[in-house]
């Protein structure tokens, strides 16, 4: 069974809900392999949760480079893994960063890109919800390794315990023209939960 690479989203040492959803979606195409990026120790914090979610393998790409540059290190790691593992597909979250990573990766690989997907089918096709949900469209990407970004909350997470065998991978050094992060200013959040993590969202107007 072919691997399906899943770029893991996490925050403060915890797995984001979308990551479990991505692993569930990946199961339709093959064997889910989680790709964890971050500074040293990141994968250790997520190992148990990834095993419970159903990741058969965990690729740990740990380096200070990940948080020191914008997006490019993650694209480099995924591109190298695609070359070495020949996966059935690469899945990312349709978040701001996830869309940027998926777009750059598809361009790097010369592969088709499916954005804002709401379901993934075993034949390799993906479902899009368009015009405010009035229509659904089935689409298939060209190329050997399609890159798919999945809309948070669109797929029901169905955890299935797996081995989550860890494999350490190298984070390539960055080119001089890569965008470097020189400072950070945390956004002060309120006491409300993040919308993408909520099971139910109620709005009025």
User: How confident overall, as mean pLDDT?
Assistant: 92
Radius of gyration, in Å, reads 17 Å
Which homologous superfamily in CATH is the superfamily? Answer: HUPs
Count of separate structural domains: 1
Form type: globular
Summarize the biggest pleated sheet. Answer: 9 strands, mixed
What does this structure look like?
The longest helix has 14 residues, at 72-85. The chain contains five helices and eleven strands; from the N terminus they run βββαβαβααβαβββββ. It is globular. Helix content is 27%, strand content 26%. Helix 4 (72-85) packs across helix 5. With 205 residues, the protein is α/β, with parallel strands linked by helices. The protein has one domain (3-197): HUPs (Rossmann fold, 3-Layer(aba) Sandwich). It has a nine-stranded mixed beta sheet with strand order 9-8-7-10-6-1-4-5-11, sandwiched between helices. Strands 2-3 form a two-stranded antiparallel ribbon. It has helices at 17-26, 42-53, 64-68, 72-85, 96-109, and strands at residues 3-7, 10-11, 14-15, 31-38, 57-62, 89-93, 113-120, 126-130, 135-139, 147-150, 165-168.
């Amino acid at each position: 069974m072919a691997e399906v690479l899943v770029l893991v989203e996490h925050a403060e040492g915890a797995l984001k809900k979308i990551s479990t959803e991505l692993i569930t979606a990946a199961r339709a195409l093959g064997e889910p392999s989680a790709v964890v990026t971050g500074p040293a120790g990141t994968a250790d914090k997520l190992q148990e949760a990834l095993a419970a979610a159903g990741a058969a393998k965990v690729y740990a790409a740990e380096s200070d480079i990940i948080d020191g540059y914008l997006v490019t290190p993650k694209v480099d790691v995924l591109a190298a893994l695609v070359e070495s593992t020949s996966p059935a597909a690469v899945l990312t979250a349709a978040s701001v960063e996830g869309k940027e990573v998926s777009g750059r990766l598809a361009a790097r690989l010369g592969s088709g890109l499916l954005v804002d997907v709401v379901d993934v089918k075993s034949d390799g096709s993906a479902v899009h919800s368009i015009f405010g949900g009035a229509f659904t469209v089935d689409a298939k990407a060209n190329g050997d390794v399609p890159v798919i970004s999945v809309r948070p909350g669109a797929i029901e997470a169905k955890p299935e315990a797996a081995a989550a065998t860890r494999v350490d991978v190298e984070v390539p050094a960055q080119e001089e023209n890569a965008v470097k992060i020189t400072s950070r200013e945390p956004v002060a959040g309120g006491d409300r939960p993040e919308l993408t993590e909520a099971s139910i969202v109620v709005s009025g107007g």
